[in-house]
Amino acid sequence: MQVGLTHFLIVSAILFSLGLYGVITRRNAILVLMGVELILNSANINFIAFSKYGGMKLDGQAAAVFVIILAAAEAAVALAIVLNIYQRFKTVNVDEISKMKE
Amino acid sequence: MLEQYLPIGFMLLIGIGFGLVMGKVNEWFGPKNSNEIKLSTYESGMPPVRSAHERISVKFYMVAMLFILFDIEVVFLYPWAVNFRELGWFGFVEMLVFIVILMLGFLYVWKKGALEWTGERTKTNNSLLNKKVV
Amino acid sequence: MYDLIFYFFALITLGSGAVVVFSKNIIYSAFSLLFTFFGVAGIYVLLNADFLAVTQLLIYVGGILVLLLFGVMLTNKVIDVELKTGTLQTVPASMIVAATAGVLCGVFYITDWRIVPSTMEMNATTAELGNMFMTTWLLPFEIASVVLLVALVGAAMIARKDKSMQN
Fold it and tell me: What is the complex's ipTM, to 2 decimals?
């Protein structure tokens, strides 16, 4: 079967599910972030696949560039929060961090 | 269509192959007469003082974050530079606004002193030294 | 040939993505994330998005991954047992995720996508994208710089706040 739109979409669906699994099951906050990155990547694959096969020229690719940049901003802020939490609670286990302050 | 990526593929293959081959050649033909001094961390220098497996300073994180900032700037600069002539002054002003806004962040981090590389350890060392002198 | 390359990159992406999620050691997860990003960049190339592929390598591999690795090194001692991170709710999570994956794949497979035959040749997208950022996408482009400014200032404040409190 010729590789077409469906193949790319299914790859992105599986990548999304993997990321979702990571977000749900992992205890370490940084691994949760990695799961989020996987999800964002799968969304980007969708954007670009539709950009090619959906006949909307390069609009999908332009959107994907902004997704990548927002992912960078998100990673920077989220990791800063994780570092701060670690300095305060000496753990990055998302289950143990349930208080707003000490 | 995909043929234009052939050089990149070759580059990748050569890179991976070179790394593997050189490592293996060293392993097969290199002389193996190592003694304790040769295996120490800095063969002709100081003995290592502390474990290398401790947490690194937050300052490295700040540098990595600034790196991402300029990384993104380059990503936007490149497609702008490709059709710099077509866009003319309008594009130049747009890019200037973009860069100035990003520079504000850089200046903030600079002002905040996140780039000052004198850590506490050197400071305390200096104070200890001064006490000894006094 | 195209199909073969697609399956190669899909295998890299999904295989290393699975290692990211299922590996017990956080360092292995971080480094296999590198291969996931690389595989996704390859898929971008197949989808006629050369600029996106380079951007992916620059920002994800060069920036975000380094940031994540710094995060790992700043919050774990490398030879610690802590590096092995636990999982929770594995069984219900796998059921939910399997259901999600099944539904998504099913929908993607069944749907009769209206495929517009691509009119453009597979050529460099950089110039075209540059034009778009300066015209149609001008507002998002400028807002992106503001978002980055805010993110940088916020992250700098959050990451360094404790230091002043300890003194």
Answer: 0.88
